[in-house]
Design a protein that fits this description.
The protein has 311 residues and is α/β, with parallel strands linked by helices. It has 10 helices and 12 strands. Bound molecules: guanosine-5'-diphosphate-beta-L-fucopyranose.
């Protein structure tokens, strides 16, 4: 892939897609192809194939997906499995039909079993039952992995599947019901601070552990892998360390200046108890995450206040 390559970023406005756009622009890539949801419905196969016929991209970053936190996954399982299966199937198949040189498919760390040995190695995929709160989404992502691998075997395509850990950063979803935990807690603690509230409610027990990767690190890893990795095996992308939701809440309370108390609503699900990725494989290729959690959250908090809260 070089500066003149024709590169399609599916989902270019989302958390991951917008970070990949920023990273490609830093790289000097000028020939970037995008379509908004209104311009191209990726769940319609004929529309997707017309688009590929017209644009003929050389490289594809498949960052379009229906995503959300534990509540959204648990509440809209049919939408999560339908949208993710159709979007990825249409783009992967069209990339084969129209001879895309290389495609990078974004999975998720939730593809691993609920009670997976830690840290989670790539070979643990399908070694046990999945976490029920996001099983439909996980099954869709596993189907995407298997589709890429099957096309590589039968048709000789070069379709990568990468597995990021929990992500955060600018352009995240900050809706209190459908978002992931980190943006939700940034908003909860900021609003409590600005409104002078004495308590913030956190879902679950606070004891689950989560690993967080800044989306700019993820975008850097995606570009690195698009250039340097072509095995027909999945590869994890993460920071290799985690903390409890309680510890995360304390970090965010500190950064927002919230001085009140934290209440845990144990009526809400905890989800997977722990899901830290083994990142030794990607580290062995020479890539590692650079953005520390406190620095990353501080930058994201600043972005949130300027672009969401004040908007
Ligand atoms: O980030 P999250 O929604 O998804 O929840 P998962 C992580 C943990 O934070 C859970 C707790 O134990 C939640 O109960 N939590 C505490 C909160 N307060 C809140 C809050 O206000 N909002 C939210 N959302 N959580 C996701 C999957 O699982 O992991 C996605 O649902 C995706 O599909 C993603 O795979 C990587 O980390 O549990």
């Amino acid at each position: 892939m070089d500066k003149d390559s024709k590169i399609y970023i599916a989902g270019h406005r989302g958390l991951v897609g917008s970070a990949i756009m920023r990273r490609l622009e830093i790289e000097g890539c000028k020939n970037l192809i995008t379509r908004t949801h209104a311009e191209l419905d990726l769940t319609r196969q004929e529309r997707v194939e017309e688009f590929f016929h017209e644009e003929r991209p050389d490289y594809v970053f498949l960052a379009a997906a229906r995503v959300g936190g534990i509540y959204a996954n648990n509440t809209y399982p049919a939408e999560f499995i339908y949208s993710n299966l159709t979007i990825q199937t249409n783009i992967i198949h069209a990339s084969y039909v129209f001879k895309v040189k290389k495609l990078l498919f974004l999975g998720s760390s939730c593809i691993y079993p609920k009670n997976c040995p830690q840290p989670m190695k790539e070979e643990y995929l399908l070694s046990g039952p999945l976490e029920p709160t996001n099983e439909p989404y996980a099954v869709a992502k596993i189907a995407g992995i298997k589709m890429c691998q099957a096309y590589n075997r039968q048709y000789g395509t070069n379709f990568l599947s990468v597995m990021p850990t929990n992500l955060y950063g600018p352009n995240d979803n900050f809706d209190l019901k459908t978002s992931h935990v980190l943006p939700a807690l940034i908003r909860k603690f900021h609003e409590a601070k600005t409104e002078g509230l004495s308590e913030v409610e956190i879902w679950g027990t606070g004891s689950p552990k989560r690993e967080f990767l800044h989306v700019d690190d993820l975008a850097d890893a995606c570009l690195f892998l698009m250039k340097n990795y072509s095995e027909n095996k999945i590869i994890n992308i993460g920071v290799g360390k985690d903390q409890t939701i309680r510890e995360l809440a304390e970090i965010i309370a500190g950064l927002t200046g919230f001085k009140g108390s934290i209440r845990f609503d144990t009526g809400k699900p905890d989800g997977t108890p722990v899901k830290r990725l083994d990142v030794s494989k990607i580290n062995s290729f020479g890539w590692r995450a650079r953005i520390g959690l406190e620095q990353g959250i501080a930058e994201t908090y600043k972005w949130y206040v300027e672009n969401v809260h004040n908007a």
